Amino acid sequence: MNQASWVTAALRLLEDVYAFAATGPRAHPDWQRDVLAVMNRAVDDPRGWRTLDWDKENDEQRAASGPSFPFFSLSREALTERLFPVPAETAARLLVVMTHDWGPVDPEEDVTHALTDARTLLDRYGEDISCYSNITKARVSPSPDLAAGVTDWRPLTQYDGDYGIVVVSPEEVGVFWSFNPV
User: Would you give the distance in Å from CA 92 to the centre of its chain?
Assistant: First the structure.
């Protein structure tokens, strides 16, 4: 794993999506604090790698809504209530669904490259990871059926739609989020 391959994979997957992709250091025993620090843009990537943040320069909206815009200003407890555990392979599939406007991925379409890119993003965090998502299907099953795409979620933003994944390793936390502001 190196910076160039990770950035290339992130851009191929998320450059055309209204998304947020950032990593922060793991500084607390309770990973929720570290995730909230990433969402609040209070920490930098510990490796100095690129962050994808389409709202970073939206100073007017951030001044009105706070540094976490477009995320809500959440407590650790509220974050925990909205996130459900998923295996790494489900997290990879969710990253691919992000690139397809949250809808079903056409079974005829070759998504091999997209899955490879998604796995590259997750590989950064090592093998000892925990993944979480706010899709409600994950509340019922840690490996939800994504054939219909993402249709229901526990919101973490002020938008009509948002979903994503959080990756937690012993050293870092990653936040990958997609927004539908319509």
Answer: 10
HSE value, Cβ hemisphere, 13 Å, CA-based, for 179:
20
Rounded to whole angstroms, the maximal C-alpha distance in the chain is 45
Give pLDDT tens digits for 21-54.
Answer: 999 999 999 999 999 999 999 999 999 999 998 8
% of residues, the chain, pLDDT over 70: 92
User: At a CB cut-off of 8 Å and minimum separation 6, what does 40 contact?
Assistant: 66, 67, 68, 71, 73
List, in sequence order, every residue forming a beta bridge with 161; answer none if it has no partner: 180
d(CA 177, CA 28): 22
Residue type, 103: G
- The residue extents of the domains of the chain are 3-180
The structure's pTM equals 0.93
Q: Is 34 helix (H, G, I), strand (E, B) or coil?
A: helix
- pLDDT at residue 63, rounded to an integer: 63
What is the Cα–Cα distance from 104 to 147, expressed in whole angstroms? 6
